[in-house]
Amino acid sequence: MRQGWRWFGPEAPVTLDDVRQTGATNIVSSLHQVPIGRAWTEREVRERQSLIETTPADRSPLVWSVVESIPIPDAVKRRGGEAKAEIEAWIASLEAVAACGIPIVCYNFMPVVDWTRTELDFVTPTGATAMRFDHERFAAFDLFILERPDAAQQYSEEDRQRARVVFETMSEEEIAEITRIITSALPGSTTEPLTIPAFREKLVAYSGIDAARLRRHLVEFLEAVTPAAEARGVKLTLHPDDPPRSLFGLPRIASTADDYAALFDAVPSQASGMCYCTGSLGVRADNDLPAIARRFAPRIHFAHLRATTREGDGRTFHESAHLDGDVDMVAVLRELVAEDRRRGSEESIVFRSDHGHRMLDDLNKVVTPGYPAIGRMRGLAELRGILHALDAPPT
């Protein structure tokens, strides 16, 4: 297995030399500066690739192995195959990536909002901070800040009462903060930052789009783009929904093993694969992570390894240390290693320590939310230790 590291580009607080010091060898990156929907050019991709792969004297080499992500425009999620111009632009981006020899592309199909949290610096018992999704705070936002018209129907009476109590204790600063976190697009997001009025308009645009229709649109998208990926030797990897359940009454269709099975049945090409994210899938207690890895092993080309801890009834959760929480990381890695051993080195699974606690000196720095250097380095070291114990040292 190959050690990856998500790098947000030359303006990011974590530098490429920082990455080298973690032991990672494979970079996961994207052209975040390119507007969503505009086709990437080969020149733009090569510029980023050169920045990553041109190794200074006496430095360890790095390789750009995974594009995370080429954003899928909202029009594709709403209209499927009818969004021809947007799909053609996405294929052009894919072709630019393939021309540069980058073999894996990650993407997601979450409508309106990408990965979602309500707190970025939840204080853990160690004094480090973690990201958290608090169901009551989320409901308070949905019901009383966003004031979504149909929201009350989707919460129980008890949920509504608890949300009102939470909302009534929020200061103006807290209201502004949760609004910013939910609507402004977290790092790596493939959706646009929104104001509250724009957010409401987006939700209206999805009226009548249920899970079956959204899944059909995803299948239509893949039927259009998979032949291009297959012809160019690129693996497409669908990231799970985060969290893996409906938000704002919107359907989510990559939350369970059955969701992925339905997709792979509809588009059987081996170029269509999975980004196996233990953090996203692990939020659901009914997702058996080792079984999912075993079931879809040939489809897994990229893995996000992190853990979460479910709180209370499981709807609230926070990011835990990589070997804590509700994920049996040893069992997960045992399955991934078994699959990796069946492959040649060129097909080896790229994994990265996903997210990480804000800890030690990073508590005193400006960091990218979810992506501080030290917490991710700790996670990578722990994952590397498991791999050595399994007699499968990573490359």
List keywords for this structure.
manganese, lyase, TIM Barrel, single chain, four-stranded antiparallel β-sheet, eight-stranded parallel barrel, 2 domains, manganese ion binding, Man_deHydtase, 395 residues
In short:
With 395 residues, this protein is α/β, with parallel strands linked by helices.
What's the overall geometry?
A: globular
Q: How many H/I helical runs?
A: 14
- The average pLDDT score comes to 96
- Total strand segments: 12
List low-confidence stretches.
none
Question: What is the percentage of strand-forming residues?
Answer: 5-15%
Largest sheet, strands/sense/barrel: 8 strands, parallel, barrel
Structural class: alpha/beta
Helix-strand sequence: EHEHEHHEEEHHHHHEHEHHEEEHEH
What CATH architecture of the largest domain would you give?
Alpha-Beta Barrel
CATH superfamily of the largest domain: Divalent-metal-dependent TIM barrel enzymes
Total domain modules:
2
Radius of gyration: 20 Å
Instruction: Provide the spatial order of strands within the biggest beta sheet.
Output: 1-2-3-4-7-8-9-12
Helix content class: 40-55%
The CATH class of the largest domain is Alpha Beta
CATH topology of the largest domain: TIM Barrel
Termini, distance in Å? 6 Å
Explain this structure to me?
It is an enzyme of class 4 (lyase). It catalyses: D-mannonate = 2-dehydro-3-deoxy-D-gluconate + H2O. GO terms for molecular function: ferrous iron binding; manganese ion binding; mannonate dehydratase activity. This is Mannonate dehydratase. Its cofactor is Fe(2+); Mn(2+). The chain has 395 residues and is of the alpha/beta class. The protein folds into two domains: 2-117 and 201-389, TIM Barrel, CATH 3.20.20; 130-188, no CATH class. Helix content is 41%, strand content 15%. The chain has 14 helices and twelve strands. The chain has an eight-stranded parallel barrel. Strands 5-6-11-10 form a four-stranded antiparallel β-sheet. Strand 5 (119-123) and strand 6 (129-133) form a beta hairpin. The longest helix is centred in the middle third of the chain and has 22 residues, at 211-232. The mean pLDDT is 96.
